Amino acid sequence: MRLHTVMSFRSVAATADERVRQLPGDDLIAESVGQLTYAITIQRPRSEVWPWLVQMGAGTRAGWYSYDRLDNGGRPSTRRIVPALQHIVVGTLFPALPGRTDGFFVLQFTPGFHLVIGWRSPGDTLITTWAFVLEDAGNDSTRLVVRSRASARYPFFGLPSLVGLPLIRAVHFLMQRKQLLGIARRVEEHDTLLDRFMPEYDVVERHRIRVAASAAETLNAAGHVDMRASPLIRAIVRLRALAMGDTTDDAGRPRGLMAETTSMGWHVLAETPGREVVVGAAARPWLPNVTFEPLPPEQFVAFNTPGYVKIVWTLRIDSAWPGGTVFSTETRAVATDAESRAKFRRYWKRVVPGVVAIRWILLRQLKKDAEGNRLESLTDGRSH
Predict the structure, then answer these.
(1) Cβ contact 190:48 at 8 Å
(2) For the chain, where are the alpha helices, taking DSSP H only?
(3) What is the pLDDT of residue 1?
């Protein structure tokens, strides 16, 4: 059972310059009968995008991150970096479909900068090239530019080029857009710190929001946002307590997200100063008066006492544009045995609408607080 927030609309349109300028691999097909260029900005550095490109391919590889029913036999493209697929050489095959021995072969690559793959005819003539180019876009972000070029031997589904070319353009746009969005989502959602403590999980929930404030201002607001300041959140928590028969009195707990959660038993597992905090605990959330048992980092991964669910969540800040950030929070949970997994799934189905609502409210309150504090500090600075 996995819950993901919906990715907002993102453009995959290449700029005028990106469409016309020379890219790696262009020289491999000197006279192209068709060229298609698309691009997307990913809020991560090139080094974090590259591993997802080199593991592409159907079947035993990671998938194409596009429409898996069409190009990966219905098997979902992976959402993690696969170490065994990180080594490529010129000639490495990226199968087009599961079980096939043909597909795209690696033609050229420079790690962290570009990857060019291509399809050859039975006579070893290059029919098409597919270039993935990574360029720095500032603020630790990457511009991924993708270009496909076809030679005069491209079959166009056996149709005349006047009919086949428009059809190919339409199909390619749909598949390429899905792939670029799939790559961007995976890169931006991938969290190395979380993977240290829970690489596999039963439930995952993710939320993101853009904030017009610095990383320090956003992280400070995230740590101090007050859940009990919202009447709606208080109502959701009260309804959960009534439904579960929870008699816990939280009135004496400190205010502010980090202070309140750590007072409940959550433990900080890891931290990247100024960027990310990972918190975790073991619990039996299906019980009326749920308690969270803190586990130190060195014990968290190995903890497997039956009857529990291990939960980790993160507060993370990524620079997105000058003076702006993307705040994300991700929660993962895994049960320690089959019986607990069944109990947790039944519990999760009941509470997940409230959990999503609380996250939605908190993120917007965080955005308001961070941007308000930034505006206040700028105003104070000008007044002096």
Answers:
(1) yes
(2) 16-20, 46-54, 68-71, 161-189, 192-197, 215-224, 231-244, 257-264, 297-300, 338-383
(3) 43
Please say if the pLDDT value at position 164 is more than 70. Answer: no
Phi, psi of 193 (to 5 degrees): -65, -45
- Locate 378 and state its tokens: 């700028």
- Determine how many CB atoms are found less than 10 A away from the CB of residue 375: 12
Would you say residue 3 has pLDDT above 80? Answer: no
**Token representation of residue 60:** 């035993």
192-383 and 16-189 share a CATH fold: yes
CATH architecture of the region 192-383:
2-Layer Sandwich (3.30)
Mean pLDDT of the chain: 88
CATH architecture of the domain 16-189 equals: 2-Layer Sandwich (3.30)
Question: pLDDT tier at 159 (50, 70, 90 boundaries)?
Answer: low
Distance CA 351, CA 30 (A): 59
Say which residue the tokens 């073991």 belong to.
282
Give DSSP secondary structure letters for 183-238. HHHHHHH--HHHHHH-SS-SEEEEEEEEESS-HHHHHHHHHH--GGG-HHHHHHHH
Pairing mode, strands 114-120 and 103-110: antiparallel
Q: Which pTM value belongs to this model?
A: 0.75
What is residue 5's predicted lDDT score, i.e. its pLDDT? 38
| Phi and psi angles of residue 330, each rounded to the nearest 5 degrees, phi first | -135, 135
Compute the distance between CA of residue 255 and CA of residue 8 in angstroms, rounded to an integer. Answer: 32
Domain map (residue ranges) of the chain: 16-189, 192-383
Using CA of residue 269, residue 273, residue 276, residue 277, what is the dihedral sign?
positive
What is the per-residue pLDDT across 227-274, written as a single tens digit (0 to 9) for each? 888 899 889 888 888 877 777 766 677 888 888 888 888 999 999 888
Per-residue pLDDT of 307-350, as tens digits, reads: 999 999 999 988 766 678 889 999 999 999 999 999 999 999 99
| DSSP string over 60-108 | TS-B-SS-HHHHSTTPPPPSS--GGG----TT-EEESSTT-S-EEEEEE
Q: With cut-offs at 50, 70 and 90, classify the pLDDT of residue 2.
A: very low
CA distance 267 to 89: 44
276-283 and 203-211 strand pairing: unpaired
Joined tokens for residue 264: 């409940």
